[in-house]
Structure formats: C-alpha cells, structure tokens
Amino acid sequence: MALLLGKKYSYSFMSASQSTVMADDSGLSGAPLGIAIAAISSFINGSTFVLQKKGILRSRNKGCSYLIDGVWCSGTLCMIIGQVGNFLAYNLAPAVIVTPLGALGVLFGAMLASWILEEHLNILGKLGCIICCCGSVVLIIHAPKAVETSREELEERLLDPVFVTYILLVVLLLITLIVWVAPAHGTSNIMVYVAICSLLGSFTVPGSKGLGLVAHDVLGEGPPNSRALALFLVLLGVLAVSILIQFFFINKALECFSSNIFEAIYYVTFTSTVIFASALLFKEWTELTVTDSLAMLCSLVTMCVGVILLRISQETVITWKEKEGQKKTD
C-alpha cells in the first residue's frame, strides 16, 4: 500500500546514485533489487491497516486506548518499515515499475482482512478492488515522468501562481472538511476521511521531494545556505504536520469502516492527488504525449467506476443461490 508515500523520502537524504552504488558494491543489480524491495514493502504496507484495525477492535473490547495495544503498535511499525522499503526501492528502480507494485498491498490487505478481521467483500467489492488497482497502474505508467530540478528551480516553482492557487484551494477544502464536514458526516461517509487523507498527499510527497533537493545544501560539507536552511525547515514542518494529520484521520476511518474498502479507495485517491500535485509543482505535464493524456483520462474514469462499485458493495447483498420460495413455486 502506497500509504503516506511522502514519508519514504524523509527517512534518509542519501541520493539515488549513492544507493545504486551501494547495491552494485554488494554484487546486486539495482533494478531487480529495487523491484524485490518494492514487492516486499507492498505486502508489509498491505498489512498495516488490517493490524491497526484489529488493534482498534481489541482495545474497544478491553475499554482502553488503542495507542497502547500491541497489535496496533505492530501495524504502525509495519507502516514505518514499509515506507523505508519504498524509499530504498525508488532509489534503486524506476518509479514506473515500483509504484504500480503498491496495488499488491491492496490485494494482500483484502486477503488478510478476510482472515484476521473476517471482512468479506462481496462480488461487487472484489470487482471494484481489482478495477481500482488496474486503473491506478495505468495512471502511474502514463503519469508525467520525473524531471530533474535544482533547489533554485524549486524555490521559483513553489511561488508559481498556478501551484500557489492549487495549494490555497486544497487548504481551504481541508479546513472545510476537517472543521465542518468530518464532525457531521465523517462516521457515515467513508469519502470524508479518504478525501482529507488524500488531499494531504499534496503536501507529503512534494514536500518530501523538496526536502531531498534542499538537503544536499543544508547537510553537505561547509556552512549551510541560509535560504536553503529556511526552506528545509519550512518543508520539514509542513511534512511533519501533514503526516500527523493523515495518521490521525486514517485511524478515525479504521474505527468506523472496513479496512478493505478504505485501503482500496485511499490508494486510488491518494495516488491520483500525489501525481497531480507533483506534476503541477515540478512542471512534468510538458513531457506528456497525447497518448499518455488519453490513457490517464481513461484510467481516472476506470478508477471512478471501481470506487463506485466499492461504495455500492457496502450497502448491497448479493447471492448466487436461488431463493427457496422460488424453488417450491417451480
């Protein structure tokens, strides 16, 4: 699961080239190693929501806080390990290969939830989960590719009117959701908490990428540049606040909704938001072709259909068995 993807950049400020050299020195090829780490991280991330949900249920039965529950803490630890693995994978293999593997976490989480939490998806839920994963994979493959950016370019792009307008709209929407919508409808509509956590992705991943760019000037040899240090502290503060708010609302969602459905919808919306925000900040849209644009549009429609199926599956009971009354009539 691509849960809190931005955190993968904040655990270390080692450059991609340094990571690759380390892999080569150990006799392992970078890309295969990165793919293997990404696959393992996806399975670990897929278990985080399930374990945290189990811890919440256990603590509710005991009448204590889930913050001291061992199962919940193990889920949180899995989240941290999974994101560290994601960071390493992104530095060893292309993002277009690593990111789609996050869909494995959604599928693994669904299987684990049916075993540990006894949360069984009906046929609509299963179809919605698969459609969401397929659509997100297509979106990631055709998403704008990363463009090399310097710290000076980053400072300029952070003040770009288009990006500033987008961030202001996101902040306004987040305030509306957190202050007014969530207290009234958060426990009855899963999309409220999903929207809050996904919109925060506009800060986590771009902020993490920005930290990676600025870290060289701040943590390198010699006295740090004052502008670079100020930017580093601002990005670090934004990243920390956004991650804490995400973490809070993820657990609020797990208290009220199925981990299966939340994980699938969250993966789709978070990935879409992150791609859009990163593309705006780093001007990656200029690299898009007509084919990529059409593919992204089709993938977004596909994911919307998958999310709708997941929402319908919450309120629909489907059975393949013929009713006994009809049998007797026949």
Word description of this protein:
Helices cover 76% and strands 0% of the residues. α1 crosses α3 and α2 runs parallel beside α5. The protein has 14 helices and no strands. By secondary structure, the chain is mostly helical.
Helix content: over 70%
Radius of gyration: 21 Å
**What spatial form do the alpha-carbon principal axes imply?**
globular
- If you average the pLDDT, what whole number results? 77
Q: What distance lies between the first and last C-alpha atoms, to the nearest angstrom?
A: 49 Å
The beta-strand count equals: 0
What is the SS-derived class? mainly alpha
N-to-C series of helices and strands: HHHHHHHHHHHHHH
Q: Strand percentage, roughly?
A: under 5%
